[in-house]
Amino acid sequence: MAVGADTFDLRRLPDSFYENPYPTYDRLRSEAPVLACPDGSYLLTRYEDVRRVYRDPRCFSSDKRVQFAPLFGEHSPLFAHHTTSLVFNDPPLHTRVRKAIGNALSDRLVLSMSPALEALVDRLIDDIEARGAFDLVEHFAAAIPIEVIGNLLRVPVEERGPLRRWSLNILGALEVALNEEALAEGNASVVEFLDYLDDLIGRRRKVLADADDDIVARLLRWHDAQGALARDVLYHQCIFLLNAGHETTTNLIANGVLALVERPALFARLRDAPELIDTAVEELLRFDSPNQLGNRTTTEAVEIGGVHLPAQTVITLGIGAANRDPEVFSAPDVLHLDRHPNPHLAFGAGIHTCAGLNVARLEGRIAIGRLIQKFPNLASAQAPVRARRARFRGFVSAPMTT
Ligand code: HEM
Prior knowledge:
- The chain is of the alpha+beta class.
- It is about 50% helix and about 10% strand.
- It has one domain: CATH 1.10.630.10.
- It has 18 helices and twelve strands.
- It has a five-stranded mixed beta sheet, sandwiched between helices. The protein has a three-stranded antiparallel beta sheet with strand order 4-12-9.
- β10 (about 385) and β11 (about 395) form a beta hairpin.
- About 45% of the residues are buried.
């Protein structure tokens, strides 16, 4: 059931919204596309408005210190982490860190990840075949990004156990309705993760070769050039890389597979025409975007869609809503495996455009493509359970049969 503009409150969402937010986004887009929320912030649901904000970092800041201080406490580990990671910074720190990560996530590097990724996915598929019944999230979707980012950060395989928990707890603290337990788990996870990185990077530094061009090597060189004060800045970027690439990609894979399983004709079409996988992944990113909400704060008074917003207004960017805007996407509620063009905003836009989008696309293509090729009769064994999260859209569990 759709919630109207008069009652919509991001902090009090009904269960039906978590199941399917799109009817609500449709209503908001037509009733109040620049919606004044009860807490004084505004929610944007029109594609052009969301895109404009993403592309104007001068008027719309990513700095979250003012919002995060009362939420996390200014001296908390969560505050230190979330206000230091590049995604929540403006230039000049953002420009410097982004450059440091730079080509370490280039097309060339990403392509070189293919063989290891294919081997990992095939291993998981073999395990699934042996089990028969499996959970799409636990036994497949969530197992892939952790290994990929573990490889990127060169975390030894046997030390990867806690990574998923740390990542979920640290990102969970960004949800719109945060409770005490989630706060405590988030803070503890930042501390544990920082301690681990101190040890890992200490070991790595000893064997760093000039030719090494991976992310940690780049960040270490950048850190050395900045002086000792930047140590925590370095660690927080590593934590952020795991967080940025973990739940989002898990959700791309699980949302994508389930959207296909629920549409047997499309499932069969993609199996028969595997060359559609590139456009199919873009469409799955648009159709059920893993990251549904973004945020910015106005740095000066602005007008959006005829609504005047003073400086320091918090804006929520409805990525999932923008990606269903009929002004830009014809028949937006229909999944078209070969939709083209498909200028979706699932990876954001502008200077903060997802730095790992090539990695995410590769993971999506290999994981979804190979799973549906291997199991033509893939089906849900029970109704999948949606996570009650508005920002990151995905499933907690999805029992399947092969
Ligand atoms: C389907 C998977 C993914 C989705 C939907 C996604 C989505 C996004 C979005 C929407 C942003 C922009 C945030 C903003 O402007 O406020 C972003 C930024 C970012 N993402 Fe991703 N992401 C995904 C996977 C990844 C992966 C795999 C990595 C790393 C390997 C990654 C690394 C980053 C980084 C470093 C940023 C910050 C860029 C900056 O601030 O300049 N992401 N992502």
